[in-house]
Specification:
The protein is of the alpha+beta class. It is built from 22 helices and 20 strands.
């Protein structure tokens, strides 16, 4: 009978090969399908910090501002705000008018289940709830020391929490969800934060301690999305699974380990795809809209949003199944996993199979930088010529080709392409093509006092320690490459494999020499990465390299007082040049997201700076049905094999059983 027990497995495998599976039975309308490689954790804005949650929440929420879907460099446009804010001459006062005609989605948390209009008190409530200690947000750093009196208000709420818990003999954070809605503030919508003031029925004013031009980017993040107090109080801790907001879609099904289904928000405001050809007011300065029009991105210009009837998102964390799902036509776009890149993009070009299917490629350099962080206060590595030698011995060209399968470009600057201050020719210790320069590296190594890798004073060979944040096969490939590159200079390397928290703990304590890291931008402004190199932020702060440079720090402080523009960009360029010269980081690569799009998908200009671009997509459902049927034609031969296998196993079992009788 052992053979018969294996039949169900064979049956399922062959049955799947013999028929056309319908991944979406009973589905109606134009629905966007995509997959997530990470499980979403929450829809509660103060807690939204990772990719899975951000991607879903971006379809549901609006903040005061949002990103223009096509403009590059990135531009902000109003969302719940009626217009971009008025900013005082000294850059310290931001005055926002709220579009009070915008409505929340219909939901049982409201009387009669009908969504109400947004008001300025909602903005105040969400700001306070974000700052409240019970929110347990990881994003407080975005506002810390920025808004007049906001830190003091937060500390006062910490005292409220301590008193509340002491009276009940309990300790945080177990009881946080139960008290969150009760003590958000003395008055949820009152003017008890010195630097945030409600003026009239539709105006809110932010007063800053000092100019903070990045505030506008922050107000476009999901952290600062706007939602109603009624929903938080109605759903309590379950609000994390039942969001209520103003975006184009609303959640109708949420399974934290399987999928999320969204449908059109019937109350979504009057919003249209930009139409620069026919509406001059849509022509933002700096946006090459004619290029986007030529690329077909503005095919739906002037149409009202959303053009989709809904979205269906499945969580497929394994790379190969996610790739096969896309190939079958069951998801509408994909960033191909590393191990599938050779199939999808042999030689960096779309495969003939994908070209024949009409699949499009939209490559996008990730707004982030991969780098090796060097401890500049280490007794050995404080030597700048040694750091320069390490940089020159690093073969970025080889790494991009082999370790990133061609899906990366050489990082000549700490600032990635697409961000003001990027300089493709910032090459003091890079070869132009990213390859290593071993002869020059050896010259600098000798200048540093280590000819051929040997300490000229002690006669001992130099040995460095490289910290890795994982022990995976991929992580080992990167550390092995660093070992190889240093051995070409005569330098030995010990590799330490850590968990990510373990490695960061070492770096905060300056207990490391070289560590492999990457920084993904929270918003497209170079200040977001320079904060990790600013002297006063040295370890245990975010400046793990403990980099100290008077000129860099001076420029950082000066740039912080300026609005976006040529003057600030020039300062960013000089700061990037200082980093390239002094090498607290060996900047290595900017990864490329090779976005693949099915032929029935239109209107998407991919980016990972934000995920609201999906609102501007449309799908041709009839084309999808036709293509999916063509690509997944049923095969009858597995059923024949199954029948023969079944007969063989049954016959063998009967024969064996008969022989065993007395």
């Amino acid at each position: 009978m052992k053979g018969l027990r294996s039949i169900p497995v064979a049956f399922l495998a062959l049955l799947c090969a013999s028929c056309v599976p319908d991944a979406y039975p009973g589905e109606e309308g134009d629905i966007l399908h995509f997959t997530l490689r990470l499980l979403p954790k929450t829809f509660d804005p103060p807690k939204i910090s990772e990719e899975g949650s951000n991607k879903l929440a971006s379809q549901i929420y609006d903040g005061l501002l949002t990103y223009h879907p096509y403009a590059r460099p990135y531009k902000l446009v109003p969302a719940i705000a009626a217009a971009l804010p008025e900013v005082s001459e000294d850059g310290r006062i931001y005055t926002f008018k709220i579009n009070t005609s915008i409505r929340f989605q219909d939901d049982p948390c409201f009387p009669d289940g009908k969504g109400r209009n947004v008001n300025v008190q909602d903005v105040m409530y969400c700001m306070k709830r974000f700052a409240h200690p019970t929110s347990e947000t990881t994003g407080w750093w975005l506002f810390q020391d920025r808004i007049v009196g906001f830190d003091d208000w937060r500390k006062a709420r910490e005292a409220d929490v301590t008193k509340y818990l002491a009276e009940r003999g309990t300790l945080p954070p177990a009881t946080y969800p139960g008290i969150d809605a009760k003590i958000v503030g003395k008055d949820h919508a009152g003017n008890d934060v010195q630097g945030i003031e409600i003026v009239g029925d539709d105006t809110i004013v932010f007063r800053l301690n000092e100019p903070y031009d990045q505030l506008l980017w922050v107000l476009a993040m999901n952290y600062t999305a706007i939602y109603p107090k009624e929903a938080v109080e109605h759903y309590g801790d379950q609000y994390k699974n039942h969001p209520v907001a103003t975006g184009p879609f609303k959640v109708v099904e949420f399974n934290p380990v399987y999928r999320c289904v969204m449908t059109r928000n019937e109350n979504y405001r009057e919003e249209y795809v930009p139409d620069p050809r026919n509406k001059p007011e849509d022509r933002l300065e700096g946006w090459d809209w004619e290029a986007d029009e030529k690329a077909g991105l503005l095919e739906h210009a002037g149409q009202r949003l959303p053009m989709l009837d809904g979205m269906e998102v499945r969580y497929i964390v394994e790379d190969q199944p996610r790739w096969l799902y896309f190939k079958a036509g069951y998801s509408d776009f994909l960033n191909p996993p590393k191990d599938s890149t050779d199939q999808a993009l042999p030689g960096g070009e779309l495969s003939p199979e994908l070209v024949a299917r009409g699949i499009r490629l939209d490559p996008w350099p990730e707004l982030g930088t991969v780098y090796s962080c060097i401890n500049t206060i280490d007794p050995v590595l404080k030597n700048v010529d040694l750091r320069r030698a390490i940089a020159l011995a690093t073969d970025h060209k080889w790494t991009c080709k082999n370790l990133y399968a061609g899906q990366a470009i050489v990082a000549t600057s700490v600032i990635p392409p697409g961000v003001a201050g990027y300089d493709a020719n910032d090459l003091p210790y890079h070869n132009k093509d990213g390859s290593s320069d071993i002869p020059r590296a050896r010259e600098l190594l000798a200048k540093a006092g280590y000819p051929n890798g040997v300490d000229s004073k002690t006669g001992k060979r130099l040995k460095l320690v490289f910290e890795n944040s994982s022990s995976s096969a991929t992580a080992k490939e990167f550390s092995d490459r660093f070992v190889f590159e240093m051995r070409q200079l005569g330098i030995e390397v010990d590799v330490m494999y850590n968990t990510f928290p373990q490695m960061i703990d070492k770096m905060r304590k300056s207990n490391f020499q070289v560590a492999g890291l990457a920084w993904g931008f929270d918003y497209p402004d170079a200040q977001n990465i320079f904060v990790n190199l600013y002297g006063p932020n040295k370890a245990p702060g975010a400046n793990y390299a403990s980099f100290q440079n008077e000129r860099f720090d001076e420029l950082y402080r000066k740039a912080a007082l300026l609005r976006d523009g040529p003057e600030r960009t020039k300062l960013y360029e000089e700061m990037a040049h200082i980093v390239s010269d002094q090498i607290p980081w060996v900047t290595r690569a900017h990864r490329i997201r090779q976005n693949l799009q099915q032929p029935w998908l239109s209107g998407m200009k991919y980016t990972e700076v934000n995920y609201q671009f999906w609102r501007y997509c449309a799908v041709d459902d009839a084309m999808r049905d036709q293509r999916v049927a063509e690509w997944n034609k049923p095969n009858r031969w597995p059923l024949i094999i199954l029948s023969l296998l079944f007969a063989l196993l049954v016959g063998k079992t009967v024969f064996s059983s008969g022989g065993a009788r007395p």
